[in-house]
Specification:
Elements: H1 13-29, E1 36-38, E2 49-51, H2 52-62, H3 80-90, H4 98-105, H5 121-134, H6 146-159, H7 164-177, H8 187-197
Antiparallel strand pairs: 1-2
Helix pairs in contact: 1-2
Length: 200
C-alpha cells in the first residue's frame, strides 16, 4: 500500500479516503484486539488501543504519526534482515550510534518464520524503535531524534537520581513549552521504550 498519503494535509479528501483504506487493512490484515487497534495518530503514537471510529477521528484531528513507515502493528509483513540493513544505511549520518544500539539489541530477531501471520514481537519492537529513531524531535531538529533524546533524558534521570514524579513533571514542562516536541507523555511510556532497548 502506498503511504505517501500519510503526509497529506489531514483535511485533504484523498487523505480521508486513504484513512478508510488504512482502517480496512488494519482490521482485516492486522491483529485487532476485539474491536480495537493501536492508534497510529500523532497523539497516541501506537501506544493506545482504540475503536475504529476513534482511530478515524484521531487520524483526521491529529494526523498520522511521522516515521511510521512499516505498519508492523497493523498487519504489514516484513522481512527483517533486508529492512534492517536498509534502515541502517539510511541512518549512517546520525549524530548518535542509535542504529548500532538497535542492531545489537535485536541481532537475534531473525526473519519471520514460515506460516506465521506476521512479524514476531521482537521484530515489531525493532520497527517501532526504528520509527522513533527516524522521527525528528521537532521540526528541522538536527541534533536529536526522538529516540536519541528519550535515551539521553532517561540517562540523566538515572545518573542524577531524579524521581519518577519529577521526571513526569519535566516531560510536562517540556511539552508545555514546546507543544510540537515528539516525546512520550510520561515516565511509564519512556520506560516502555527503554525496556524494548534492553537498557532498563
Amino acid at each position: 500500500m502506498d503511504k505517501k498519503w500519510t503526509t497529506l494535509h489531514r483535511l485533504n479528501s484523498e487523505y480521508r479516503k486513504c484513512v478508510k483504506s488504512f482502517l480496512d487493512f488494519a482490521f482485516t490484515k492486522g491483529e485487532p484486539q476485539g474491536r480495537t487497534i493501536l492508534c497510529p495518530c500523532a497523539k497516541c503514537r501506537n501506544c493506545r488501543w482504540r475503536r475504529r471510529k476513534v482511530v478515524r477521528n484521531h487520524l483526521i484531528e491529529f494526523s498520522f504519526v511521522q516515521g511510521y513507515d512499516v505498519w508492523v502493528n497493523h498487519g504489514e509483513q516484513i522481512s527483517l534482515p533486508k529492512e534492517m540493513d536498509d534502515h541502517m544505511e539510511d541512518q549512517e549520518d546520525s549524530c548518535d550510534d542509535i542504529n548500532d544500539l538497535l542492531y545489537d539489541t535485536f541481532r537475534h530477531a531473525e526473519k519471520v518464520e514460515k506460516g506465521n501471520k506476521g512479524p514476531n514481537e521482537d521484530a515489531k519492537k525493532f520497527y517501532n524503535l526504528i520509527n522513533e529513531a527516524k522521527q525528528e524531535l521537532y521540526l528541522r531538529c538536527e541534533n536529536f531524534t526522538t529516540l536519541s533524546f528519550i535515551i539521553r533524558i532517561y540517562l540523566l534521570k538515572c545518573f542524577h537520581g531524579r524521581s519518577n514524579v519529577s521526571f513526569n513533571a519535566l516531560l510536562e514542562l517540556l511539552k508545555e513549552a514546546m507543544p510540537n516536541l515528539n516525546i512520550p507523555e510520561s515516565f511509564n511510556k519512556t520506560k516502555a521504550i527503554i525496556k524494548d532497548l534492553g537498557l532498563d
